[in-house]
């Protein structure tokens, strides 16, 4: 009996001593899985395609989110993202590689369409983990990334409409026609007819969207997490952050442990939504720690969201203004998308996230939620 228990212990110690990458590789037969925020259906499909082709999981998720970073019609990420209050697009991104336990991040990066790739370069090619602002741009340019204007015509229009919505305490605004202007039928700063005259060619639908962006400053991000057949994981989060932010504001997305966390022994999590509130609970790290202590992906995320609610003493009136989601995956393939609220606005669509499980099509699925909005 003594001998058997000794040898069992020896086996256990031996397993603990195995390098992590080899231990992960030993778990062959894991079903590959990719999840992301709701804007990542194509990103999940791309990442899965690369995982099937044998690419590293980090290369897979970064290639996935690059689709969204380069898409001028996604106004929350990369090129075409809504700018800061000066009309300049500033991007944040982070990435983590499970097998090597490394991470990289950039914050307030201007002029580079794919900040996730720069975050990976910080991880792989520097002794640092996080570069910001001008230093991050200089680093990216030194590596050959091209500096470009990230403000599209649509994003510029949205920014100008937002400028028109700002008023001083007397209701004045220098960004709308002055008192010497010919009288218009309606003079409201965000009157759609007036905007149509001022932005001919912008299209009524887009201008209505701009008005909505001005009234409800949007945020958005893509987080993407992958697991391959060897049990290896990687994750990435990339964003243009909160629209109309103060220049230099960095949200949760590039904060390792905030907008992204991965522990190859446990799992990974990422976030979208109001970064400031995520930072107050170290959200992604908290989700993963919850799983380490035995919770399912869903319980881990809902518990973290409860901590957000607790920070407001569960005051629903204030919480109504918070929009926050987590995407969580365990190393065994348990996963969820979880949202503080069932939907962003009363009557709006239910919050969803994207999933690709290797055999099926990449698709959207309803997120679980903590609180329900009454219409
Ligand atoms: N979390 C991002 C930030 O706060 C924005 C978002 O996901 O909506 O910068």
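Sequence proposed for the structure above (375 residues):
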């Amino acid at each position: 009996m003594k001998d058997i228990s000794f040898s069992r212990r020896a086996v256990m110690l031996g397993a603990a001593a195995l390098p992590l990458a080899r231990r992960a590789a030993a778990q062959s037969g894991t079903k590959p899985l990719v999840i992301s925020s709701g804007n990542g259906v194509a990103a999940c499909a791309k990442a899965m395609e690369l995982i099937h082709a044998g690419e590293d999981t980090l290369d897979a998720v970064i290639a996935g989110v690059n689709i969204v970073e380069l898409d001028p019609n996604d106004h929350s990420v990369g090129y075409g993202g809504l700018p800061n209050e000066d009309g300049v697009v500033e991007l944040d991104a982070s990435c983590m590689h499970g097998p090597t336990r490394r991470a990289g991040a950039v914050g307030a990066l201007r002029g580079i369409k794919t900040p996730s790739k720069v975050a990976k370069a910080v991880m792989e090619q520097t002794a640092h983990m996080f570069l910001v602002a001008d230093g991050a741009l200089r680093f990216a340019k030194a590596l050959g990334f091209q500096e470009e204007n990230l403000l599209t015509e649509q994003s510029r229009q949205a920014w100008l409409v937002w400028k028109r919505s700002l008023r001083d305490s007397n209701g004045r605004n220098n960004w709308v026609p002055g008192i010497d202007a010919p009288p218009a039928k309606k003079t409201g700063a965000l009157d759609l007819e007036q905007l149509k005259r001022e932005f001919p060619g912008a299209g009524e639908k887009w201008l209505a969207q701009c008005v909505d962006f001005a009234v409800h400053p949007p945020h958005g991000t893509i987080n993407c997490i992958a697991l391959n057949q060897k049990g290896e994981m990687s994750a990435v989060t990339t964003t243009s952050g909160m629209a109309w932010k103060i220049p230099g504001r960095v949200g949760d997305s590039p904060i390792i442990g905030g907008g992204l966390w991965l522990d190859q022994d446990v799992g990974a999590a990422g976030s979208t939504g109001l970064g400031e509130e995520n930072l107050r609970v170290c959200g992604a790290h908290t989700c993963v720690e919850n799983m380490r202590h035995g919770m399912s992906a869903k319980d881990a995320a809902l518990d973290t969201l409860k901590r957000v609610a607790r920070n407001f003493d569960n005051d629903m009136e204030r919480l109504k203004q918070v929009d926050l989601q987590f995407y969580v995956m365990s190393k065994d393939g348990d996963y969820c998308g979880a949202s503080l609220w069932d939907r962003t606005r009363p009557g709006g669509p239910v919050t969803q996230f994207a999933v690709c499980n290797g055999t099926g099509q990449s698709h959207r699925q309803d997120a679980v939620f903590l609180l329900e909005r009454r219409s």
